[in-house]
Write a structure and sequence with these properties.
By secondary structure, this protein is α/β, with parallel strands linked by helices. It has 11 helices and 18 strands. The protein has helices at 2-11, 18-25, 31-50, 63-68, 72-85, 102-105, 118-127, 172-176, 258-263, 305-315, 331-335; strands spanning 90-94, 110-115, 135-138, 148-153, 156-157, 168-169, 182-186, 200-206, 209-217, 223-229, 232-237, 252-256, 272-273, 281-283, 292-301, 320-324, 347-354, 357-366. Strands 3-2-1-4-7-9-8-10-11 form a 9-stranded mixed beta sheet. The longest helix has 20 residues, at 31-50.
Length: 369
Amino acid sequence: MHSTLLQLRQQFPAPIDLAKLGQQLRKEHSSQEAIWLLQQLDMYWDALRLQAFRDPLPLWYEAQALQMGSRWPLAERRAQKMQQRFPTGLLVEIGAGIGGDSLELARLHQLRSCEKDDLRLQCLTHNLQSFPQVDVREGDGLTHLGGAASLYADPARRNAHGRQWHNLDPDPSQLWKLGLPSCLKLSPGLDESTLPPDCDIDYVSHQGVCKEAVVWLPGSGQVSAWLYQDGHWLTSPRRQPPPVGRLEPSMWIHEPDPAAIRAQAWEPQGGWRVDESLALLASPPGLTSDWAQSFEVLEIGDSDLKSLVKLQVKYDFQPLEIKKRGFDVEPEVLRKKLPKGKSGGPGVIWLTRLEGRHRALICRRLDHR
């Protein structure tokens, strides 16, 4: 079966009509085998799109673990940083899933990977075949800590409601009580006040999304943003907020990467806030940053519907992009209420707050990134 799966993935490296392929597979395989092959092929395409693994071709997948697991550039960075912080001894991985982190950790660490879900454990065992030195164990990793010098965990949600510690398995607060040097991958929406004092936090962005907050113990209270871009990592530390300043037409505004916003890195440096409640920054023309999407401000207007209609008629943007920050509106609902442009070229209506007031910024996107 595995050799058939490899042949299918090599033959179909991009998505095709699975219904037709299923008909062919059922001529040579049972229905159950054909379903497994189709599911694994479909998840392989997802793994490629998500950059989920360094080498996704030979691996087995489970749908939820694939979607929620680490992306390999993030897992690689974390494994390298763990080697720097925890250079010797046994690293115990709790909740290994299908091996998104395990495969990178195994390259650099003496590793014990633990998983209690039967299906994920089957995938994990298969996926780690090329690293026979890894000690793969079934069950709760908290029961397999003997000899551990450090631990890593990616706690799973027990349900879909909220991010409280009691909804995570294992509970991060229980892990920290163990007193072991540790690395935990958590949601970037965490409440920092719930974390141990003096831990370090990395907010990590990939494919335009802040994917995770990585919490390190012991630490020194450092908070940083990390951005994966074109095969390289950028990092920026937490800074004091810049002052609030005035925004005028011809200036540029900058929307920082989500990780920079979470970490309060205030990129690009040299900009100022347009409102004290927002991370949207303004600057003179010409200031660029790999950390931000930037826009030239053409006009500043009122944000009521009548004014927005007039502005769209004036600029005739097509396509029209609608963005918001600190503004209670659904862009796609608003789009239906505005006239459709014809010949004004691409443009952006930013709905945001300027010095405490709701305003509309008429902009053009800048392509320095």
